[in-house]
From TrEMBL:
SUPFAM superfamilies assigned: TPR-like
Tree of life domain: Bacteria
Organism: Vibrio hippocampi
Protein family per UniProt: Belongs to the UPF0162 family.
Name this polypeptide is given: Protein SirB1 N-terminal domain-containing protein
Domain Protein SirB1 N-terminal: 34-184
One Pfam family named in its UniProt record: TPR_9
Length: 269
């Protein structure tokens, strides 16, 4: 298992970090092909915007290339598919979710010199664009559209309720390790829905390299071990969560599962 540390991601672009993460979870990830594809597309983008002199027009040309000519788009039909969080699959299918599409837009944009940053807004990932001496503007990487703050406020209300109020912290730029941590959680959730438990287990192992002894991650690992018929290991993880989070609403259910496992005969394989 590859160990991942924050400093690995601070020095590279988000899409490159995501590829490292993807490869660590699934060795079948076509990492070399994806890197070659990124290089080829970057060269194409450089040529596509070369005729534009004004920086804003150059950036709009990049958006037209990314969402128009290249055809990247949000995956409406299978939003929660794990294919939308594996960068090589997103490059192959030209479909993704905000964080994966945003990572690619950031990659090309930052390589071309545009002032782009990551924002983990409560409802979804955003790309922040800040021209010199101007207020920041925000792009929805799902469709490439600029998003006004009024719309962001509406998204927040839909997500948190009518009393939700947008605060400055919601639009702060974040570093790559923060995004990668959330990406890993998205990937694990997608793999669990698809019952790809071995790959999901790698996600929990990786997450625990970032936050060792996280009781919620260990609880999730217990669930995965349970699906893999490793019941005694699952019981150990469940018991750890019970001891660490005695007031959690799921405690009684987990206690009953630990009790059932403890009464079951141990099978030696």
């Amino acid at each position: 298992m590859i160990e991942l540390f924050d400093e690995d991601f601070d020095a590279i672009e988000l899409a490159e970090g995501a590829l490292i993460l993807n490869k660590a979870v699934d060795p079948q990830t076509e990492q070399h092909w994806a890197r070659a594809q990124l290089d080829s597309m970057l060269a194409e983008a450089e040529l596509a915007i070369a005729h534009e002199i004004n920086p804003k027009q150059r950036f709009d040309a990049l958006l037209r290339l990314f969402y128009g000519d290249w055809g990247f788009t949000g995956d409406i039909d299978a939003y929660f598919s794990s294919e939308n969080v594996f960068i090589d699959k997103v490059l192959q299918r030209r479909k993704g979710i905000p964080v994966s599409l945003g990572a690619l837009l950031l990659y090309f944009g930052r390589k071309l010199g545009f002032p782009l940053e990551s924002v983990t807004f409560p409802t979804q990932f955003l790309v922040k664009l800040t021209w010199p001496n101007e207020a920041a503007i925000y792009i929805n990487p799902y469709d490439g559209e600029y998003v006004a703050k009024q719309r962001l406020q509406a998204w927040l209300i839909g997500h948190e309720g009518p009393l939700a109020k947008m605060e400055a912290k919601h639009l702060l730029s974040v570093d790559n390790p923060t995004v990668i941590g959330r990406w890993l959680a998205l990937l694990k959730g997608a793999l669990l829905r698809e019952e790809k438990y071995t790959l999901a287990l790698r996600c929990t192992d990786l997450a625990l390299t970032f936050v060792p002894d996280d009781p919620y991650e260990i609880r999730d690992r217990g669930y995965i071990y349970q699906q893999l018929d490793c019941h005694q290991i699952a019981a150990t993880d469940f018991q750890y969560f019970i001891d660490q989070c005695p007031d959690d609403p799921a405690i009684e259910l987990l206690k009953s599962q630990v009790s059932v496992i403890s009464r079951a005969p141990i099978t030696l394989h």
